[in-house]
Specification:
Radius of gyration: 28 Å
Helix content: 25-40%
CATH architecture of the largest domain: Orthogonal Bundle
Shape: elongated
Number of helices: 16
Number of strands: 21
Number of domains: 3
CATH topology of the largest domain: Transferase(Phosphotransferase), domain 1
Distance between the termini: 55 Å
C-alpha cells in the first residue's frame, strides 16, 4: 500500500485527521458536560486495564450508554474475540448502524483492542496481525464498494494508533501515548460516533428514498439527469487500492427496466479520462461504443488528505460518477455461437470507427470490456458494444512514452514486448478473446485467470497469464507460429470445433507470414489498415452465417 507511513502532523492533542472537525467539537462538548465528566474519567482510567473480552464488552456498553442513547440511537458496538481465554485480550470492534442487515455493509468504523505489554506495540507485530487488520478494511470496502474511505483504530494497552484507508492506500497517526492523554481514546471514539455519513467516508452522492439499504438509491447530476439505481451490482472491485470501479444498473424511473449503467471509478488525476474519450467519440459519431449520458467529479484523494504531509508521494485519484448506455449483457452470456460471431464482427467495426473517425485506440480489449447489445430497435445498431474507456488513448495527443496497459491473458505480443500501442494490437486482443471463448467456452467468467481454473493444466493458455511479460510474449509468439497454432486449434471445445477454419483465417490476417516468419508488427499504410478491419469483420460475419445455415 502507498502512504503506509504516518503523515507529518502533531499528535499532542486530537490527531490532525480528527482535529477541527464539527464532530470533534461536538464530542468535546459532550465530554465536558457535568453529567458526563465522571463517566469519562472512569472509562479513561479503565481502558488500559481491559485484560479480558467480557471487560471490554462491559466497557463498550458503558460508553454506548453515554453517547448513543440519545445522540446516536441507531449506532452500536459489536465486538469479537480474536484470542481464546485465558490469553490476554485481543478483540475486534465494529461501530455499526443498527438498521442495516449486512454486517460489513453497516460498518462505520473498525477497531482492535489488545491488552499487551507496552513494549509489545505495533512495531513488534508480525505480518499476520497487520494483514488481518488490513483484511478487515478490505471486507468493508467489498461490502461498500463505492465508499470513499474508512476510519480504523488500534489500542495496545496505553498506545493508540488511528488509521485511514482509501483507494490510494492507508496512513496512520503514528503511536499516540494514552498515558500522556488518558481521555484521548474516549474522545476519539466519541468523535467517530458524532460523524455523519460523509464524515465517516460513505458515498453521499447516492440519495435514498427510504432508509439506507431499503432501495438502490438515486443519483442526480448537475445537468439535471436523475437515475435510479438497482441494489445489485454489475461490477465491483475485489481489491482495496486502485481504480475501484463500481457499476450499477439504473433507469430513469424506480419501476422502469434498467437500461443504463451508473459507475463510480477512482481514476488517476494525471490520466486522460474516460469522459473525455466518450465525449470525443460522441462528437465524431463513432459507431458501436457506449454513449455518455452524464458525469460529475465528486472529490479526490488530495481533498481527503488535505492538510496532511506525507514522507512519500501518493497517487491522487479523482472520484466521479459516470452514466452510460446501453446496459448490455456480458459478452460471455451469448445464447448461441452465431450471436457471438455477429457481435465480434460488429466489434471489429466499432474499433474501426473509433480509430478512423475519432483517432482513439481502446487498449484494453478483453471479455469484460465487450457487451452484447440489448434487443435492437433498428437494424443499424450494433450487436456488440465496446465499453470501459479508462485506458483509451487519443493517438494525436499521446505522449511518446506509454505505460503498459491491457488485461492479463489478452495482451498483444507487441505490447508485452514494450512496443507502443497501435490499432492492430486492439484487433490482436480481440482475436485472443475469440480464442478464449473457443477453448474455454465459459459462460460465467470474464477473467482469463478464472477461465483457466476450468481448463486442464496442459492447456497452452496457462502460459498466457502471468506478470512475467517477457515469458508471456515468448509463449504467445510460439503459439502463434504455424506449428504452435495447430496445437491451439486442437484445444477448441466441441461447440467451437467447426470454427477451426475461421480461426485459421483470422490467424492469417493478424499474423501474416513475411519471409517465412510470423509478422507481429503494424502496417500503417491506409489501404492495409482499412483492409484488415474489413477482412476481420467479414470473416466473423461469414462464420456466423455458415453456422446459421
Amino acid at each position: 500500500m502507498s502512504s503506509a507511513l504516518p503523515p507529518s502532523s502533531s499528535s499532542e492533542a486530537i490527531p490532525q485527521s480528527l482535529r477541527d472537525e464539527p464532530y470533534s467539537a461536538a464530542a468535546q462538548k459532550k465530554l465536558q458536560e457535568a453529567k458526563s465528566a465522571e463517566v469519562v474519567r472512569k472509562l479513561s482510567a479503565q481502558a488500559p486495564e481491559l485484560a479480558h473480552f467480557d471487560a471490554l464488552v462491559d466497557w463498550l456498553a458503558a460508553f454506548q450508554s453515554l453517547f448513543f442513547a440519545a445522540d446516536q440511537p441507531g449506532l452500536h458496538f459489536r465486538s469479537q474475540p480474536l484470542s481464546k481465554p485465558p490469553g490476554p485480550l485481543s478483540a475486534s470492534v465494529y461501530l455499526e448502524t443498527s438498521h442495516l442487515q449486512s454486517v460489513a455493509g453497516s460498518t462505520r468504523v473498525v477497531g482492535e483492542f489488545h491488552h499487551a505489554n507496552p513494549s509489545v506495540n505495533v512495531q513488534g507485530e508480525d505480518n499476520d496481525d497487520i494483514l488481518r487488520f488490513c483484511g478487515r478494511a478490505l471486507e468493508v470496502f467489498k461490502a461498500q464498494p463505492a465508499r470513499l474511505f474508512l476510519h480504523e483504530f488500534r489500542v495496545f494497552s496505553t498506545t493508540l494508533e488511528l488509521w485511514v484507508f482509501d483507494r490510494s492506500g492507508a496512513y496512520s497517526s503514528g503511536e499516540l501515548d494514552l498515558a500522556q492523554r488518558p481521555n484521548l481514546l474516549v474522545q476519539v471514539l466519541a468523535s467517530y460516533a458524532m460523524m455523519d455519513d460523509q464524515e465517516a467516508g460513505f458515498n453521499t452522492f447516492v440519495k435514498h428514498l427510504g432508509p439506507v439499504g431499503s432501495d438502490g438509491g438515486y443519483v442526480a447530476f448537475d445537468q439535471g439527469n436523475k437515475l435510479y439505481l438497482r441494489p445489485e451490482l454489475i461490477a465491483a472491485p475485489s481489491y482495496l487500492v486502485g481504480l475501484g470501479t463500481t457499476c450499477h444498473p439504473a433507469s430513469v424511473s424506480t419501476t422502469g427496466e434498467p437500461d443504463t449503467v451508473v459507475k463510480f471509478p477512482w481514476r488517476e488525476a494525471a490520466a486522460h479520462t474516460e469522459i473525455e474519450q466518450l465525449k470525443q467519440a460522441r462528437e465524431r459519431k463513432v459507431w458501436g461504443v457506449l454513449q455518455l449520458l452524464g458525469s460529475q467529479d465528486l472529490g479526490s484523494i488530495a481533498d481527503l488528505r488535505s492538510g496532511l504531509q506525507f514522507p512519500q508521494p501518493f497517487v491522487n485519484r479523482i472520484f466521479s460518477c459516470v452514466a452510460t448506455a446501453p446496459l448490455g449483457r456480458p459478452s460471455q452470456k451469448f445464447t448461441s455461437i452465431p450471436e457471438l460471431l455477429h457481435a465480434l464482427s460488429d466489434l471489429v467495426q466499432a474499433l474501426r470507427s473509433l480509430y478512423l473517425d475519432a483517432g482513439i485506440i481502446h487498449r484494453d480489449i478483453a471479455i469484460k470490456n465487450l457487451v452484447l447489445a440489448p434487443q435492437r430497435s433498428n437494424t443499424d445498431g450494433p450487436n456488440g458494444v465496446l465499453i470501459d474507456f479508462d485506458q483509451a488513448l487519443d493517438v494525436a495527443t499521446a505522449s511518446p512514452k506509454q505505460p503498459l496497459v491491457a488485461s492479463n491473458g489478452f495482451m498483444a505480443i507487441g505490447i508485452l514486448s514494450g512496443q507502443r500501442h497501435t490499432y492492430r494490437h486492439d484487433l490482436e486482443s480481440l482475436f485472443y478473446v475469440f480464442l478464449w471463448f473457443a477453448i474455454g467456452n465459459d459462460h460465467e467468467h470474464d477473467d482469463a485467470c478464472d477461465i483457466l481454473e476450468r481448463l486442464p493444466k496442459t492447456s497452452r493458455l496457462w502460459k498466457w497469464c502471468s506478470l512475467d511479460f517477457r515469458a508471456v510474449a515468448q509463449a504467445k509468439a510460439a503459439d502463434m507460429s504455424p506449428e504452435g497454432f495447430e496445437a491451439i486449434l486442437e484445444e477448441f471445445s466441441p461447440d467451437f470445433a467447426p470454427l477451426r477454419g475461421l480461426a485459421k483465417e483470422l490467424h492469417a490476417l493478424i499474423f501474416p507470414l513475411q519471409e517465412g516468419r510470423v509478422f507481429t508488427g503494424t502496417d500503417t499504410e491506409q489501404g492495409a489498415v482499412e483492409g484488415l478491419y474489413a477482412a476481420m469483420a467479414d470473416a466473423f460475419e461469414r462464420g456466423a452465417l455458415v453456422l446459421q445455415n
